[in-house]
Write the structure tokens for this entry.
Amino acid sequence: MHPKTVARVIGFFVVLFGLTLVAPILVSFLYGESDFGHFLVPMLGTLGLGACLLFLGRNSSGNLSNRDGFLIVALFWTIFTLLGAWPLMSSAHLGLVDALFESASGITTTGATVMTGLDHLPKSLLIYRQQLQWLGGMGLIVLGVAVLPMLGIGGMQLYRAEVPGPLKDEKITPRLAVTARALWFIYLGLTLACALGYWLAGMDLFDAVAHSLSTLSTGGFSTHDASIGYFKNPVIEQIAIVFMLIAAINFGIHFTALHRRDWSHYFHDVETRSFVIFVALTMLFVVWMLQTATEEGSLLQQGRDAAFVVTSVITSTGFGTADFSKWPGPLPVLLIFISFIGGCGGSTAGGMKVMRMLLLFGQGLHEVRRLIHPHAVMPVRIGQRVIDSRLMQSVWGFFSLYVGVFVMLMLLMMQAGLDQSSAFSAIATTMNNLGPGLGEVAYNFQTVSDTGKIVAVVAMLMGRLEIFTLLVLLSPEFWRR
């Protein structure tokens, strides 16, 4: 392990985060608000901390081991959450626990909140919440990987620890720094396109930019209590659906399609194709259930609600136009369950990822076939690709840890005062980085105890970093020389 290098890299990321606080300060001046000091002091403090860490990391070797990568990612997201809470305590006058919850929810792109009255809050505070999600969506770690070579530090270890999905060693370009820059340029370009679409559809410029930040990050924070439903505009909803789906697809596929100017890559990729088909079938099922269970609303309105809510939930965005917790029959529980699937690997979406579910399903079919043909050699395949047994072991390991951590956190949430249904929903929505839940947490987490909110923060970080990155730090072997 290289402590000086770790301090240097963490310091670099902290300075980057401090510089992002310029945005809410500029918004404060632009709209004639007087609360810029709530962001100026945290910015100066953050930059000072980053400078101290950079000083401690001077003359570092410039080498990163796998252990350094996991430690940097875990430390950074923890520090990021703490620093992100500072402006919230100052500007929104939140208590420490509430500010930590809101900060973690933004950074992990969960979208759960303890805040209400958003329509009347300063725009500087609103844009700060949105940019937290945008930065967390692609990850400052990946941004840092793009420039770490300039510091003489390799970044593959950070990339493996940060990028979601089971296929972490696959790069879309030979050089990792080029990969990270390509991902960020695509992310930025799609954000600008989404903002333009919202603006042309009727949002004012501030709302268009703010909602584009939380759409591409699949975060779900809004500048209004009624979320996207505030606008009552079907065109805005359709634009949101399109960009939520785009954000939930592997950004490597976006790069390949754009670089080669061949859109057929979306159809040839098994994960993307399976994801789109599943979303479409779920939409049809939800519309059918709404039609058979209730006479409220026309078929067109029910189809509109179903398309938006299903997309919002499966992509773990959490935007709202309809209160699905009050939908009839099994629909509310069904929607919580599809959040476990989430989007594709290498996307900004949460959940366990479509590829992992495909691998688990493929392994299940493989075991059934082995019962019929016990001596046959039948490797697990996804499309034309033969899946390595080591990858399957990793997926099963992730799944077993996910279930174990979920059960433990759910029991802790029940101990914190929530009933069984609310506790299950709270952990599901935080670990899957979704946002809205059922029962007591259907709208927000305001009534949850401080202990429950701390449990939720742990669940959000576990979900965002996909469990392994944090649990590996608890292994004694990790700290041995």
